[in-house]
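Late competence protein ComER: structure, please.
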Amino acid sequence: MKIGLIGTGNMGGILAEAIADGQGIYPSNLYVTNRTLSKAEELKRKIPQIHVCQTASEVITNTDLIFLCMKPLDLFPILNDNQALFTDDKCVVSITSPISVEQLETIAGCSCVRAIPSITNRALAGVSLVTYGKSCTDEWRKKVDELLSTFSSPVEIDNSITRVASDIVSCGPAFFSYLTQRFIEAAVSNTGIDHDTATILSANMLIGLGELLRKEFYTLPALQQKVCVKGGITGEGIKVMEQELGDVFDHLFEATHEKFREDLEAVKKQFN
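Here you go.
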């Protein structure tokens, strides 16, 4: 199987590196292109065996499974301009949440899938969110699932929870990185610890926390109970968080869903 990636920006590049490191295919079977070709060439310096193509049509022609790794409003022109190349033996995968598989199917006459990756996939970890179109054959379902399993845990989701699931899986690392950065900055500002030491301690704390959850030693509530001894220091910190955080996460999901609705409307106009 030959795989194509159209778009080698942040997520496209991460996806290419994850596919190569996960050994789902030989890197020599990976074909990539980007609107700014220098970005594709930069990726080739990291993975020398991949093929850099001049155009999207060249990628589609030479591959079986094509990932569209671009912003929502940039995807429609690629589909529309190359419609005849998406023959029924191929499979096209969009990695952007505002575009549904049903919309892909209105243009591409092949198996259609939406697979939303996460930056955690770069470490061959975390979840990828998958929604299969009605046009997707059982053979392509199996192939896509096997490929995603080489660098992630694929979770099939219904279209109705696409945004919130993506907030958790795909945006979540950025949200919690921001919280951790604020945590580190507060430690440096209020105590004698230096920034590098606070960063090392915080990073390793997060890695350890992840291992505790992965190995299912504790649930999140059980972990808090275990650390938060009655009358202890942790409890005082939790009280502050309860008071200060308030409805911040409610507002976070409200904001992401509002932006999602705007994107849906913009995409809808293109596909209609």
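Notes: The chain has a mean pLDDT of 95.
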